[in-house]
Amino acid sequence: MDELRYPIGRFVPADGSTVDQREEWLQTILALPQALREAIHGLTAEQLATPYRPGGWTVQQVVHHLADNDVHAYVRFKRALTEEDPNAGTYRQDLWAELSDSRETPAETSILLLEALRTRFAILVRQLKPVDLARTFVSPTHGRVTLERAIQMFAWHGRHHLAQITGLRARMGW
Ligand code: NI
């Protein structure tokens, strides 16, 4: 079950990062919306409503979860740049995924949101200095997180959910 839920493995942080590594993470972040679009291309409504694993979210809910998560990640990031060690709070992602917009919004709407938000995120991140990257927020689940690590987690999170969808398609022969 763990391989279905964590198809690329759990998040493993790098020790420090170079400009090149951060640019690579950014490229992953920027490529995700189009990769997601391709990953769901041609799926029927029934296929989009199929859980990626038994008891898991449907493909459609995974796409909308990525948009929900991006909104939170972006706000956390900007709060850490403008406040001292803010408490990033948390949200009930399981319940967000059950709300009507996560069931009824076309997937493409959330992909457009991901594209727009990640375009802004990349502009922001490329201007950051080392002192900015060392700024932190406090997460109830991850503890104190530097922005450098948050960028890496953001890149991982997109790949993680994308692989849930591509894994389902591969297993189902879709
Ligand atoms: Ni997630």
Task: Walk me through the topology.
Elements: H1 2-5, H2 19-40, H3 45-48, H4 59-82, H5 93-96, H6 100-104, H7 107-126, H8 130-133, E1 136-139, E2 143-146, H9 147-172
Antiparallel strand pairs: 1-2
The site of nickel (II) ion has 4 residues, from α4 and α9.
Residue share in helices? 55-70%
Question: How many beta-strand elements?
Answer: 2
Distance between the termini: 21 Å
Instruction: Give unreliable regions as ranges.
Output: none
Radius of gyration: 16 Å
- In the CATH scheme, the class would be Mainly Alpha
What this model shows, in words?
This protein is mainly α and 174 residues long. It contains nine helices and two strands. It has helices spanning 2-5, 19-40, 45-48, 59-82, 93-96, 100-104, 107-126, 130-133, 147-172, and strands at 136-139, 143-146. It has a two-stranded antiparallel ribbon with strand order 1-2. β1 and β2 (143-146) form a beta hairpin. α2 packs antiparallel against α7 (107-126). The two termini are 21 Å apart. The site of nickel (II) ion has 4 residues, from α4 and α9.
